[in-house]
Specification:
116 residues, mainly alpha
Length: 116
């Protein structure tokens, strides 16, 4: 992704980055690398966000990636709407003032470009 020749050719999705088997350092790096956000896109990995043991907002909070006050609300949201839970979780991710830019969640631009 960092190579200039990959720009416009290589994209990545963030669907599985919040699963327990992922290292928090990966999320931190992606949050800090704002230069890559135009090439990242939100993916849900549905139905996995609804499978309770796979994603832990509490563990992400403990790693400094989520505000502690959001954990309970996210857990309640997951019970009712796993897709909205996943979206909200990723929108709330933050590391030392870095969060995903709105471009990561505006994925239509990538699909519209492939139709042209």
């Amino acid at each position: 992704m960092a190579e200039p020749r990959a720009k416009g050719l290589l994209h990545g999705d963030i669907s599985a980055i919040t699963q327990r088997n992922r290292q928090p350092a990966i999320i931190r790096t992606l949050l800090e690398r704002g230069d890559l956000h135009e090439r990242l896109l939100h993916g849900s990995d549905y139905p996995l966000p609804g499978v309770l043991p796979l994603t832990s907002p509490a563990a992400l909070s403990k790693a400094g990636l989520l505000p502690a006050g959001a954990v309970n609300d996210l857990e309640i949201l997951r019970q009712h709407n796993p897709l909205l839970f996943d979206f909200s979780l990723k929108r709330l991710l933050n590391w030392q003032g870095h969060s995903f830019s709105p471009a990561v969640f505006h994925t239509r631009r990538l699909f519209a470009a492939s139709q042209a």
